[in-house]
Design a protein that fits this description.
The chain contains 10 helices and 8 strands. It is of the alpha/beta class.
């Protein structure tokens, strides 16, 4: 039986919860896992994977120039139809993302959803990469950097700021305001120093495996700190499909 006691409990469930993904729900980068499949199929050059590793390190230390990264990424996959990318994203989720979710993630967020909390993913990863995860957790929406498509092909970045750093707070405010929610009615879950603006404005902040500056800030602000376990290696290697509790 999975121990979910490390995740927070609420006297009253928040009206909505904004969930960062990479490092918060799993100890990996979803886009890097996705790029690995594309690389193995000959759809990406090795240089992209190396660039993704570099930017992953920049993200870890809160210094990612996400605008440059997404522009580079879109150029790299511009010739691949969106429908094919979506199919690969489902495979990526089944074989690489779902088995790496932290222990208790599914139980905790399905419990919140059943208590009436609206779950919203807020991530710098592309929306099509996150869509299978959104469905799996029962999230009502995904907030990420808008992209433009033409003729079933990704052609560029859409209007508005990139969904990274202050951009996450921008999109969260837009989403909440359009639906009549206040930010202080929300909970925010994140793991990175770059997420501090969103964490600071939410009514309840939950930081996952924080380090350095974020850990010190969380302790100063009285934010909830959780340190969920990674899944067992045997479970991560399992290839069978699994349906979460509903």
């Amino acid at each position: 039986m999975i121990d979910v006691s490390n995740w927070p409990t609420y006297d009253k469930a928040p009206a909505l919860a904004f969930l960062d993904v990479d490092g918060t729900l799993l100890a990996e980068t979803t886009t890097y896992l996705f790029a690995g499949i594309l690389r193995r199929r000959g759809l990406l050059r090795r240089s992209f994977v190396l660039r993704a590793m570099y930017h992953g390190l920049q993200h870890k230390f809160g210094r990612l120039d996400y605008g440059r990264l997404i522009a580079f990424g879109l150029r790299s996959i511009a010739s691949i139809p969106v429908a094919e990318l979506e199919a690969i994203a489902r495979e990526n989720f089944d074989h690489h993302v779902r088995p790496r979710l932290y222990e208790g993630v599914v139980e905790h967020f399905h419990g919140l959803r059943d208590a009436g909390t609206q779950l919203v993913l807020v991530s710098s990863s592309p929306g099509l990469v996150l869509e299978p995860l959104r469905q799996y957790l029962g999230c009502v929406d995904t907030l990420t950097t808008p992209v433009r498509t033409e003729g079933g092909i990704l052609v560029g970045v859409g209007e508005g700021p990139v969904c990274y750093g202050e951009g996450k707070l921008y999109w969260a405010r837009q989403w909440a305001g359009a639906r009549g929610f206040r930010m202080d009615e929300s909970a925010a879950y994140a793991d990175n120093w770059s997420d501090r603006a969103l964490l600071d404005e939410a009514g309840r902040a939950v930081v996952v495996h924080p380090r350095g500056r974020l850990r010190r800030l969380a302790e100063e602000r009285g934010w909830t700190i959780v340190r969920p376990r990674r899944p067992h290696r045997r479970a991560r290697r399992g290839g069978g499909r699994h349906r979460p509790p509903s």
